[in-house]
Amino acid sequence: MEKKIGFIGLGSMGLNMAKNLISAGYHLKVYNRTMSKANELDQASITRCKTPAEAADGMQVVITMLSEDEPLRETVLGKDGILEKLPKNGVHISMSTISPETSTLLAKRHSEAGNLYLAAPVFGRPEAAGRRDSAGS
C-alpha cells in the first residue's frame, strides 16, 4: 500500500519538508497558492491539487506549513477548505507558528467534524528542514 499524505504550503520551509517526506517514500497530494513551487518536487511522487479540500480528500493525514493565521484559517475553514473533505478521524498537523486563538479555534472545529488537530509549530531556518543527515532529522 502506498503511503500518502496531503501537504499544503510549499514555501521555503514547506518545500524542504515535502522533499524529505518524498525521500522517506511518501506520495504527497500537494496544494500551494503558487503551484509552480511544486515543480521543484519529484513529479512522480506528487499529485497536484487545485484546492486544499482536494489535497485532504481521502487522506488520513494532512500537513499544513503556512506562515500566518489568516491563510491557515482560510485553508482549513474556508470554501474548498480541508474540513470539507478530511475523512472522519483524519489528522491535521499544523506546523505553522500561529496564535493560540487560531489554534484553539481550529482544534474546536476539527473536533466538531470528528477529526483531530495537532499543533506542531516548527521553529528554525528552512535550510535545517532541508538537511537529510541524522542531525537534520
CATH fold call: Rossmann fold
Order of adjacent strands in the largest pleated sheet: 3-2-1-4-5-6
Q: Which architecture would the CATH scheme give at its second level?
A: 3-Layer(aba) Sandwich
What shape does the CA trace take?
globular
CATH class wording:
Alpha Beta
Fraction of helical residues? 25-40%
Strands, count: 6
Task: List the topology elements.
Blueprint lengths: L2 E6 L3 H12 L2 E6 L14 E3 L3 H5 L4 E4 L4 H9 L13 E4 L5 H13 L3 E4 L6 H5 L7
Parallel strand pairs: 1-2, 1-4, 2-3, 4-5, 5-6
Write up this protein.
With 137 residues, the chain is of the alpha/beta class. The protein is built from five helices and six strands. The longest helix is centred in the last third of the chain and has 13 residues, at 100-112.
Features:
137 residues, alpha/beta, six-stranded parallel beta sheet, Rossmann fold, single chain, 32% helix
Condensed summary:
This protein is α/β, with parallel strands linked by helices.
